[in-house]
Amino acid sequence: LQEAPDSGASGSSAVEIANIPMARKPLHSALVSTTSSVSQRQSLLSSTPRLYYFTLFFAIFLPLLHNSPLAGKAGYLAIGVEASVVRTPVAERRVLDETNAELVERDDSPTDICKRWSHQTAIVNGTIYIYGGQSSNATRQTTDTWNNDLFTLDLTKKWEISAPALKAQPRPSGPPPVANAFLWNSLTSLFLYGGSYADNEDPLPSPAPFSLWEYDIASSSWKEHKNPQTSSGINSEAGKQPVQNAAEGAGISVPELGRGFYFGGHQDFRTTPGWSIDVPRIYLKSLLEFTYPGYTNDAVDDLKGGKTAGSDG
Fold this sequence. Notes:
Blueprint: H1 34-66, E1 94-96, E2 103-105, E3 115-117, E4 120-124, E5 127-131, E6 134-136, E7 150-154, E8 167-168, E9 182-185, E10 189-193, E11 211-216, E12 221-226, E13 250-254, E14 259-263, E15 266-267, E16 282-283, E17 287-291
Antiparallel strand pairs: 1-2, 3-6, 4-5, 5-7, 7-8, 9-10, 10-11, 11-12, 13-14, 14-17, 15-16
């Protein structure tokens, strides 16, 4: 093959109460008569019931206020307006639409699915990448199941089988929604080969001319390698033949060698453009070898002498 990082903070806002000093009365140098002293003592005794009731109020009613609707989550008296964390807007993921004329937002792949099957997976540096396949949101859903969703799952961290920690990635704007394809992987990229288009939609989508799609892990971006062709080499057919799409074959990646292999599979009207529904499916016995960009392969005529594959593989 010739081509190839919110949480609602319950902000505990304590009420700040200003400590306002009492106005101090000026001192007067004067003799205090016995009558005045008695009057002061009577005034002090008359204020004792007031102090008693004041203390009783705090002892009884403050605990009630602690659990009242006026109290905040931390048990402090909530006075004033409600406040919350000012969240930084998430950067919009925007791409050109199919006509390259307008910027449109890309949605994240949904994680609230009932089940998923016939998808493509690859493991790179302890992370599993899950692409496409079919999924359903209801038990009896039988249509609209094909998708081009992309998820990752960190295998180095613990998670429950009943609730795997799937991380949704932006839905690709180019790679097709296919099932039963294969994801080759190098140490830095994923390569989507093959796959079958939906057979339960109305109208049925037409398979597109085959392109090899590469996902660069570091930049989280996709690149299309159009019209890939074969190269001649040891035990191979003649070169310069268009690489055709296939589905349900057996694939394997050998990233240490920089190569991917795909054996067998089938072709029919859901894999190949222009294939009539009246023409029966065929099953393949071919073996396809793909040399990743930047790697050598002396068995390929164009790469003899230690040459490395170009940017398209």
